[in-house]
Amino acid sequence: xxxxQLNIGDPASGKSYKTVIEGAKANPLIGxxxxxxxxxxxxxxxxxxxxxxxxxxxDGFPMKSNLDGPIRKKILTTKSQGFRITVKxxxxxxxxxxxxxxxxxxxxxxxxxxxxxxxxxxLITTGE
Length: 128
Hints:
With 128 residues, this protein is mainly β.
């Protein structure tokens, strides 16, 4: 059974909201990829359209947008997701997760593309 922590960013107000979904509500997210847009109605946000911007798995490894599939893989990287360089020219082998959401993903970062009729604060606090 899938359980995800959603970090929802609102570009209009600059605020972000955190909520947890699990069970049947979380199943529509499985198989979606980073930068994919989807309707928020199955998650309980009618009228909203979200775009997935990233996430991390249950062990804290970040999702990488150009690594296909739900796999975990070591890649040689310079400056990118999950790695900040401190010395010019530094390369490092890092363990990252692919761009597809599976049941092993814990945190999903997303932003609002289209607003619904109700405010997002009302939907998150009431638990609809």
